[in-house]
């Protein structure tokens, strides 16, 4: 198990290791294809205990990988959320595992029908860089709850976190149960091409398409947790200070490097100045300074920093007004890859910030004249992973629930639905397919096997040939009326 904690130096060695781990997990699953409830509960207990005991090392590693991330932000958004999810799954495993009885109907009245939930087998989990712990542990939680074995491909952009995670998991699990694979893009490609019994991917829509294409060659079922441009819609009936504070937290968390972060805001035209003023106040309260403030997260690497900087320049060159929320009036760019939360006023569809998921501290703000216009704008675009609607009017909330499609919906909040353990989390269409968290997570990693049992008395003999007897004619007359 200690070998799992070592980072293998060459791509070829890691590819060989991937093949060996995959085959050993398949063999181990064949030896134990249906772990009992107590074994699964024990695995989750070990995972939760290890996660909590390694929390300081994890926080240090994540911050080092990013350049800076607040310890509390990692403890809350990575450790606490994942630990609560483990506790929730552990509490419900026995109930989830129970076969569910199904109706058989009058025609099959002497039979019994049940659905048995079996582990799928060996699960592959591909983890992104933005929340490298929580987005590894959460799918692993439900894979283990369903009785599977798991191979985890961590992001090459968070190597220190990967090393800590490998060490942590290597201390509690044998590699034929859970193992971490490192490596660059070539390892990621090879990983997605393995004939897993289920492949779970979190990341961009573009890469998700490639993962799904690779999985299709093996007919591997996939869960894709993608992203897209998650809208935030402000109504006429919400106190702006309340809305702005919650939007500010959701957008500034992890410097906007969150798949469900508000990607753009639709604000009533008469309230636009009010929104900018309240966002400025809220951000100033949370982050009175930025450059040396350990609470404000850095952009993960130079590539992402350059991308975001270029998108701001693109918006400015095309006529947008940039409002950088910079309470201490510091000079940027500064050391540490930090970008102030920047409102983009007057954004248009020809700007990069309105064409792709932003994934950073940039927030386009669009004014709308009527709710019909706002809903048409949202519904004419690809379905997002999340939608946030701020309004105290109950009729308005019912309308948004009924007339929009998104993976999840927050009413008078942003981001926080991810932390509700009993709510399914997943996208729709371009923002993903499938869901996990809660009971849906268990079902995602389980095969629902239909089981029909018939007693010694065989009522089905009534439909055996030769056909056309009195009982068969009476049956057709009774059921086909």
How would you name the CATH homologous superfamily of the largest domain?
Aldehyde Dehydrogenase, Chain A, domain 1
Structurally, the number of domains stands at 2
Largest sheet: 7 strands, mixed
What's the number of helices? 15
Mean pLDDT: 95
Any guess at the CATH architecture of the largest domain?
A: 3-Layer(aba) Sandwich
**Helical content class:** 40-55%
What's the N-to-C terminus distance? 65 Å
The residue ranges in which pLDDT falls below 50 over 5 or more consecutive positions are 1-9
- Described by the principal axes of the CA atoms, the overall outline is globular
Gyration radius from CA atoms, angstroms: 26 Å
CATH structural class of the largest domain: Alpha Beta
The total strand number stands at 16
Structural class: alpha/beta
Q: In percent, how much strand structure appears in the residues?
A: 15-25%
What name is given to the CATH topology of the largest domain?
Aldehyde Dehydrogenase, Chain A, domain 1
Strand order of the largest sheet: 10-11-12-9-8-13-14
Please give the structural blueprint:
Layout: H1 11-31, H2 37-53, H3 55-66, H4 71-97, E1 100-102, E2 112-119, E3 122-126, H5 134-145, E4 149-153, H6 159-172, E5 178-181, H7 185-192, E6 198-202, H8 205-216, E7 222-225, E8 231-234, H9 240-252, E9 264-268, H10 272-286, H11 302-317, E10 321-324, E11 342-345, E12 362-368, H12 371-379, E13 386-390, H13 394-403, E14 408-411, E15 432-433, H14 438-444, E16 446-453, H15 470-479
Parallel strand pairs: 3-4, 3-6, 4-5, 6-7, 8-9, 8-13, 9-12, 11-12, 13-14
Antiparallel strand pairs: 1-2, 2-16, 7-15, 10-11
Helix pairs in contact: 1-7, 2-4, 2-5, 3-4, 3-6, 4-5, 5-14, 9-10
